[in-house]
Amino acid sequence: MDLKPAVVTPELASAALASTEMSAALRLATWIGDGQVLTESGVLRPADAVKVCAVLGIELPGGKKPRSAMDVPELMFHWEVALWAGLISMSGTRVHGSGVQDLANDPAAVLEAWLRAVAGAFGLPDEPCPQCLTTLLTIADPQVADEDVIAAVCMTFLELCQDCGTLHDDDMDEPAEHAVAAMAKLALFGALPSDGEPGGQFTLTPLGSMLVDSLAALYAPAPEDDAGAVVTRLGDLPAPAAVVFARPWLAARTPVQAARELFDVAETATPRRRMAAFELAAEIGSEAMPAWRERATAPGYGVYVRDWLEDQGQPVPIFPRDEAWMTAESLSIVLSQAPTELASMTLAMTLRDAGDGMAEIVKLLGTSGHPDSPLLIELIRQQMPARAGRQVGAGPVVAPWPALAPADARPYQLMITLREVDGPAVWRRVAVAGTTTLADLHYVIQGAMGWENDHMHAFRAGRRELAGGTPVREALARRGSGIEYEYDFGDGWEHDIRSEGFFNNEPGATLPACLDGAGACPPEDCGGAYQYAYLKEEVLSDPDHADHDELLDWLGLDSADEFDPAAFSRDEANGRLAWLRRPDDSALPEPTEQPVLTVVRSQTRGKKPKAKRNR
User: With a threshold of 0.85, does the pTM exceed it?
Assistant: First the structure.
């Protein structure tokens, strides 16, 4: 789906060009002109980054020349905006300001470029940030008072405390901060007034209204569309946004009629679309109550109806299999979001904390009556420890990924080092089959390092991104060859992966295996290598630091003494990797001798710049 301007006027085009981000992107593209040289990372050289920062009025971190343009976040955001807008283009080792001339005297071209930039910043139209999109639409809703905007956004994404069933004040912090950040970004693009301008931050500018209208034109189903088409079109959007865009369709029906049509779709839909249909029906409100009551005794999918009615304080019949059915439904939704070749692996990662309770989950699925239960049970039996299958009479368990540990494949020994982290350094040495794909190696790295698999990743060889289906023996064909693995594009955790040749230990060793390592894995979402250093060296080490107690609370610690950046356990790493092994391999045998390859010790790194001080 392409986002096109719903309205085109010279005034809107002038406002788009005058917005903070488009103005900066245009100046960047103009400075680049006929071309500038790129580094292997695909960014400007450090000396050129200094020059363009002076042009754009960007203050260099620490007042010093950066080691890489990527160390200047403000510059990199302008860079991304220029790429999204089509104002610059990269070819080989050069970047060109190719799109500037296309905007001259063409309001439509200006607004299309502006929309592309906004779409890139907010993940539109295919992967919108739910909170950012909800913030925009809440501001646009005339029924929400200005002072209630942030509260309305927060209530959409909050859940009641499982302990006391209420909301706590500190639960509002994260969604409120996200909403404020979204508004700040909208202001940078001119969709909201800048601070101090008439109307305040809760009133859309004409440019912001055009953005909302353009999104509505893209997403909104026609009044005559059937409910199946509506759910398909809006199913991936957050429920409040789906309701906004569904208003023309809803207006053509009574609330009861709309809910009935959605329930008809839900009865036979896929789990993911079924959930979307019920979320949309729930947003219609209590006016659709008769339709909900009609389905209160429906087996299976009726659990959604009964849950909603119970939330409204209505009496509901008891269906003993509801918990089992919803367990299967939830797992099916998780499964639907994973690539087919990673289905069993994804299920294993989802249920990795269940331990000996895995057999109980299999039994629960077996009694659910859910149409996806047979597939779920088979996938769980394939990937989980053999004991879970034996307890329910599963019979022999077949490994779904023989590529991870085939008998005739020579294992590779890999050294994985986390860049820019020292005091201590963080590294792992692993052994994997040469036929292991990079898609599977991602899970090996996650388990060996101790990451939580919460973010996107990429493998690269120089500037070239490698496909997930590439085998290790091709990506690291020679001893000493290397590739890069980046995890979490926000924090930017970069790992060097080097081949140390073949793993020559006792034949039949369980793979994948973590052979050695050092250093604790940094906490997820802590801000990257520099921020991690700052947290270790200045915040945690100083009980009087203003952020000390808050950081301890965030880490779930009672004392800074509980945090050991040098902590590493080979047994724990292999415990995490156990999910990737064949189910009949229950333990990692101790090596009978040290690997014949030389152990690579951590190397002293160059002095790094001071970390940012805002967590």
Answer: no
